[in-house]
Amino acid sequence: MSGPPIGFITMRGMPDELLNYLTNIHIYQLSPAWAKLDEQCHSIVECGGDWSKYTDDISVHSGLVVEDAFLFLCGQSFEADFMLPQMELRENYFTNIHFIRIASTPWLLFLDVSEQTQQQQLQQQNANELSLVRDQQRRVLDRYVGGAVAERSIEGRLTFDAAGERRNISTMFIDLRSFTIFNQNYDPQHVMDVLNQYMEKMIPPILDEFGLVDKITGDGAMTVFGVLNDQNNPSESALRAALRIQREVLTMNDLRREQGDYIMEVGIGIGSGEAVLGIIGARDRRAFSVIGPHVNLAARLEGAARGGEILVDETTFHAVKSLINDYECVNTELKGIGVSSVYNLRYSRDI
Fold it and tell me: CB burial class (10 A; 0-12, 13-18, 19+) of residue 74?
């Protein structure tokens, strides 16, 4: 090296008080120890500093062979400068070891970086734990709202203002028919097992169509389509999910019928329109919610649907009619709403 570093030159005018402060926090706190080596880097010519953190048994002194003093340097080439980072020479003590030549004189410099290393390890541990929590959160969200929604929620791209946000969505209610009778006549554990079998057929189609499961209501569920910004036609997504649910349940019922098991069918109601999406509740208990006239309408349609039927409102019908082969439109009295045009999508393409 031909002279002092540029950074050192710029500090020549710095007051001694500040230089002492910098020296203390950047050098002395690292408990430096050093060894000047002979030209061949075979033995120690002179040494100094605090060796207590770098060696257990051997007292470092002049004349000592380098490899006897520092076994970890056996086989190390000294032809070029090097740095060995965070070497654990003693238990829970970590050292940065520098080999440098200054004016052709070889030096070994030992710096205690235990505190920095432990902080890095703690940060890494916290990062690993955070990653684990995020993975667990993603798995939980994925189970209940689907992978696409889970990813957006984890990444902060799916948020709702507590005051509410207006969107055009489709709401679908599904419900098992004859569940009450089944629940009254069978052991609760058996009821739970069968209910989960039906849910395994009903929930995945919703998630696959980017639907959000707002709530599971015992023997049914309320779901929302159109929550994602990239959702083009929530009504079509809701219809595809409904058709797949009916097919899945029909197939499962064929098998259950053959085995002499209890059969339950599914009634589905879908309503579409503008709704307010937001977070409601008290500080300690908050939940996502959807509020709008068509939400109540979808619930009434589901209540009017018989097993195997998909009933939709007029708005939903016009949004999906290009996908429908056959339907029946009936003016129906719906509780709390009045007479409404109800479309029974009895026969549809395999979409």
Answer: exposed
